[in-house]
Design goal:
This protein has 135 residues and is of the alpha+beta class. Helix content is 18%, strand content 52%.
Length: 135
């Protein structure tokens, strides 16, 4: 599953997770988990949050590319002057069948939310301002 997930632990504590896809960098997944943490903090009437636990997982995905065959051929011909007959020629090219690997990052935070600034807390408004579109 890609995207956000959260689980309420207490009225002011949540477990927040963001799972990306094979195109999502670990850094981007971290930023999205941070963004969701700030959104939850604001949505529940708090201004600050602290990450009390975090984890990073990478899931390895493998797949095999499809095998394709392409055949090019020429038709039989008869050369009247020499009296020679040329047989049909064909060339088959096979491609694909390579094993490819990709990784899917998943970032999880346990957060505690606060009304006032506490040591090592992040300001939800400041975090969210990083995601606003610049005009």
């Amino acid at each position: 599953m890609n995207g956000y997930d959260e689980f309420k632990l207490t009225p002011n504590k949540y477990r927040v997770q963001f799972t990306g896809n094979e195109y999502t960098s670990e850094d981007r997944a971290y930023k999205y988990a941070l963004r969701r943490s700030a959104e939850l903090t604001r949505a529940h009437g708090f201004q600050y949050f602290k990450i009390t636990n975090s984890s990073v997982n990478k899931t390895k995905n493998t797949y095999t590319t499809p095998v394709t065959k392409r055949t090019a051929s020429s038709t039989d011909t008869y050369h009247y002057e020499s009296g020679q007959f040329k047989e049909n020629e064909s060339i088959t090219t096979v491609s694909g069948g390579e094993v490819r690997e990709s990784y899917t990052p998943s970032i999880s935070f346990n957060i505690s939310m606060y009304h006032r600034d506490v040591e090592d807390a992040l300001n939800a408004g400041v975090i969210l301002s990083n995601f606003e579109k610049h005009r």
